[in-house]
Design brief:
about 450 residues; 27 helices; mainly alpha; three-stranded antiparallel sheet; 3 strands; about 0% strand
Length: about 450
């Protein structure tokens, strides 16, 4: 128990590569100082592990940071090993030996005091009599089995203790049991955050997404009369969802939609504009899965709008790539920013595994935009803009025309591509521009009627 340690960066990134060589660009746009205040100390540890991987041999500064981060936890053996490494000592200080004994004593006490209620909640005959009414459940358990409020609260304390010891699976189980019975809304909310963190650290992504929805619903309903608390809690949730966002493929669309919802995009713009890096990476890398769908086009349009609005507040090579391509239509700048973005992504804990997919999707977006604007395209010129050789660029363009079904013809002798851009009739343009007006009018009328 006391020799537990938080999961490594490799464990939380599904074994993805975490030992890229750091670059000055990646260091310049490092978001770690902005992410840390919005994460639990146990969630911060994998980011420090990733940082030490970037630097090759772990630096003394990172080791000290790990020690300061975890010294308040109950993972005494691991903390003691960090102290020994920092001080170049083979002996364990007496304070760690004493704390280890205290942790083991408290663990034994918690196990004894929660054994009765734990057995009851694992008894199918007892659980089958529980209802959605927590007050009625407590009354039933008190009358039939002698369960008290203090025993229920002990589950909460024991869950927090297990979490501090690094026993995340046991912590999640205990906090879930506490939520089933507790009528204390504040503690139940705290237990939900604790269970979410524990599930993240055990990489139980399906359950994580269920907990994300529960926490989101709690923020929307229970904090309705406290806008400032809502803002803070949504900020935390946004940062915590970065773990499943890029490590669990089925969560990508769900979290992207959540972040684009009005309440969360407002939170990003107000409290944490640096999240635009992750939102941009998610939208761009989802191109192959949702290309040409209405949802993808809307997300891309919303992304461009927000990046343009928040450019004065936050920018990095990823957001500047979006601005160069879709706001300034500067293909040379877009290519330059793409090269920088690749370095930044490889130095980012959450995005390092998505760097190659991002570059591939970004090249497609550059090609598509370039082909839509130009009628005659020089293959050598486009290849240079994509950072490819002439032969690679030629194959790329052929695949692009085939995959996107563009109306283009390749002239091998001239080394060009002729694009056919049939003009829409005036009537079709009017239809396209006004097709959503009826729906918007209906929504506005309903809002006015209220």
């Amino acid at each position: 128990m006391t020799d537990n340690k938080p999961p490594t960066a490799e464990a939380l990134t599904n074994g993805g590569e975490t030992h890229a060589v750091p670059t000055s660009t990646a260091q310049q746009y490092d978001l770690l100082p902005k992410l840390i205040p919005n994460l639990d100390r146990h969630l911060i540890f994998p980011l420090l592990e990733f940082l030490s991987g970037l630097e090759g041999d772990e630096s003394a500064e990172v080791t000290k940071a790990k020690y300061e981060l975890l010294k308040q936890t109950n993972m005494t053996d691991y903390v003691a090993s960090l102290w020994q490494e920092i001080n170049d000592s083979d002996e364990m200080p007496e304070e760690f030996v004493k704390k280890r004994e205290e942790v083991l004593q408290r663990l034994s006490l918690f196990t004894e005091e929660t054994s009765q209620i734990d057995e009851l909640l694992n008894d199918e005959s007892v659980v089958s009599n529980l209802r959605s009414d927590k007050v009625a459940n407590l009354k039933f358990l008190e009358q039939q089995h002698g369960v008290t409020i203090q025993m229920v609260d002990m589950l909460y304390d024991y869950g927090r203790f297990q979490y501090s010891c690094g026993s995340y699976a046991n912590s999640a189980h205990l906090l879930d049991q506490f939520r089933i019975l507790s009528t204390d809304n504040d503690k139940a909310s705290s237990a939900s955050w604790g269970k979410l963190a524990a599930d993240i650290l055990t990489t139980n992504w399906e359950v994580v997404m269920e907990e994300v929805n529960k926490v989101k619903e709690s923020i929307d309903t229970k904090l309705f009369n406290n806008p400032l608390a809502q803002l803070d809690h949504r900020t935390w949730l946004i940062h915590w969802t970065l773990f499943p966002f890029f490590n669990y493929e089925p969560a990508r669309d769900t979290i992207t939609e959540m972040l684009f919802s009005p309440s969360f995009i407002n939170t990003i713009q107000t409290n944490c504009p640096w999240i635009l890096r992750y939102l941009a990476a998610a939208v761009i890398t989802s191109r192959s899965r949702t290309r040409n769908t209405g949802a993808y086009q809307k997300q891309l349009k919303d992304l461009v709008r927000v990046v343009r609005q928040e450019g004065y507040e936050y920018n990095d090579p990823v957001t500047e790539f979006v601005k160069a391509l879709y706001v300034d239509f500067d293909f040379e700048a877009a290519q330059k920013k793409l090269e920088e973005a690749e370095e930044v992504l490889k130095g980012d804990f959450f995005l390092s595994a998505s760097a190659d997919a991002f570059v591939e999707a970004a090249r497609h977006l550059i090609s598509e935009s370039y082909c839509k604007i130009h009628q005659r395209i020089d293959i050598r010129d486009l290849s240079a803009r994509l950072g490819l050789s002439h032969d690679e660029g030629e194959k790329w363009i052929v695949n692009l025309i085939r995959d996107t079904r563009m109306d283009g013809k390749l002239d091998y002798q001239q080394g060009t591509v002729l694009m056919n851009h049939p003009a829409n009739s005036v009537y079709q343009q009017v239809i396209e521009r006004t097709k959503g007006s009826f729906f918007r009018t209906s929504v506005l009328s309903a809002a006015v009627a209220k």
